[in-house]
Amino acid sequence: MSALGPHSPAHPHHLCTQESACFKLYHNAIKLQQEGKWGEAKALYCEILDSELLEEDTDWTASSTILRLKFLVYKNLASIAREQGDLSAAADAYIEV
Fold first, then answer.
1. CA pair distance 12, 7, nearest whole angstrom
2. Alpha carbons 3 and 1: distance in angstroms, whole number
């Protein structure tokens, strides 16, 4: 059994920092999406999905805040795909939701 240090993935401070960083990316992506900069917004959404916060398979990933963020990211990726006429990608993103 290992101790939780301040930089271990399950340490509360580390999780708050990751969550804060993901929400900052999310708000930047929303702004880019609203400006019609879909490629840049999509890249940020994908960065969120690739983050350690959403990749970890631990109890804290089931928090309602994190699940809501994941839902919103996929919903917005679907919206971008729909706006670009890629209905297949839009459907795939909606299925992930």
1. 9
2. 7
Count of domains forming the chain: 1
Domain boundaries, position 55: 12-96
pLDDT digits (tens, 9 = 90+) for 35-67: 999 999 999 999 999 988 877 655 554 578 888
Q: What are phi and psi of 66, to 5 degrees?
A: -70, -40
63 assigned to some structural domain: yes
Asked whether 46 and 34 are in contact (CB, 8 A), the reply is no
pLDDT: which is higher, 47 or 9: 47
Alpha helices in the chain (DSSP H): 12-34, 38-49, 52-55, 64-83, 87-96
Q: Is residue 81 part of a domain?
A: yes
This model's pTM is above 0.85: no
Measured distance between the N- and C-terminal CA atoms of the chain, rounded to whole angstroms? 35
Q: Are 22 and 51 in contact (CB under 8 A)?
A: yes
